[in-house]
Design a protein that fits this description.
Number of helices: 14
Strand content: 25-35%
Shape: globular
Structural class: alpha/beta
Number of strands: 25
Radius of gyration: 25 Å
Length: about 550
Amino acid sequence: MTEPVEHRTQVAVVGAGPVGVTIANYLGLYGVRTLLIDRSEEIIDYPRAVGMDDECLRSFQGIGLAKEMLADMIQNVPLKMFAANGHCLADIRPDSQEFGWPRRNIFMQQLAERTLRAGLQRHPHVRPLLGHELLRVEQDGTEARLHVTGPQGERVLVHAEYVVAADGGRSTVREQLGIPLSGDTHPRKWVVIECDNDPLDAPYTGLHGDPRRPYVCLDLPYNYRRWEFMLFPGEDAEAMLRPEKVHELLAVHVPDPTALNVTRARVYTHHSRVADRFVDGRICLAGDAAHLMPPWAGQGMNTGIRDATNVAWKVAAVVTGRAHPRILATYDTERREHARAMVKLSDTIGRFLSPTSTTVARARDTVVRGLTVAPPVRDWLVHMRFKPVPRYTEGIMLHSRRPTRKNSPVGRMFVQPRVETTDGRVLRLDETLGEWFALIGYGNDPLVHLDADSRAFWDRVGTRYMTVVESRSGRSRGERRTSTTDSVTVEDVDGTLRDWFAGQQGSIAVVRPDRYLAALTDPRDLATLTGTFEQLLAPPQSADSKDAWHSVPVTEGEAS
């Protein structure tokens, strides 16, 4: 038998869907040698995921692709919930941009994937192995080995320090690791129909709780429209895809269903499941390999992109010697519970949508109308505050031991307002923070409060130091305050950071590479916090200690 072609890499990413390619882009940004493996060479050329939120856009901003994503996106799309009689119960239009981007956006997944794959071309140390199917994965104390077959049936063996599996709901990696995907499979199937000559003037996403047949109707970019219809017991899924049945489903919703150019008609089964663990030794699960949820909250892919942003910086920190491998356990700690929360949200919206009893549907509508009369409830709904925002209580973060307000911002995503640089450019905050950690002082320079050892630690983990000052705090027009150290100085254009820090106990924020707040402290306590945070990451101090924590590094010449 012919010997396999061997590749050696720092990280292997299995699955080249949006989650896997996002991870590969982040690893490329962090300078990590990466192989991206997928059995398909092509992108599936029809829309799947269609909703993108502000957190997801911020993740794409982190890899320099948010503007390219927006080019194919409808921004600020309303979400409307309709009663059994067709009247609108709720018109959800969140208008805040706490994280720097619109909160409800509609896109087409195949276009987004093309943008993400094009982004990989910026990183020569990220190599796609498309048309390569994973057959078997194994791991030990030094590496993971992936047995792969190539496009022509050739055998390929990949040696990787770490693996991230984003290979979908039927994940080969998850199955071989024996990790259960716990939860439920819903009994009702749904048929999804799309056309590319939209006949309707309905620029929103509509959840129609019509007990005669619950359905969803979505306005998509480039004159596309999608309908999703519940199937009833006894309806044959394959039969419902026949043109005459498709036309029958659409007949009450469009003037002439035969005039539609239907580009897709498929039947889906929905699942509400979460893997029992996201980390197994040197292997991490992400995206649909780790969790599956119904589409009603539009959070399936968004949840996967949160996984990608979290796991990528941690794996990169380990293989580049910035952190101990034990930090990978915090990926599971931080992400799994929030994935469960998103599954529950999707199930809750599904329960609103799905009643097929007229009595139950009318009772639902009466309750919702009654609740939304109260302004706090209406605001909670209209501004989409029902969506669980990640708040990590355990992981790579430090909570103050001093008495603090209950709703601490530590473990939450940090705000992203506009700031102005010393050369007069107005940017989103993340554009000034660098790729790794950031120490942000409001009205003070973090570097002034660091001793030599503390500074050495933050330098080792790639920290950007920032001083935020009030807007127009110079002595005259055009004069801007600058730091006397290596700290970057920015002006707080909208006063957002002023207001944010005013409500906190501390004026120096430690922001992680994924833009979550890792700690908040006063200048006098920064050195103490640094020592504790160093123990949290425990980066290697020497080449000898580095070798003890992960496999022998592969030199550039060894990478295939």
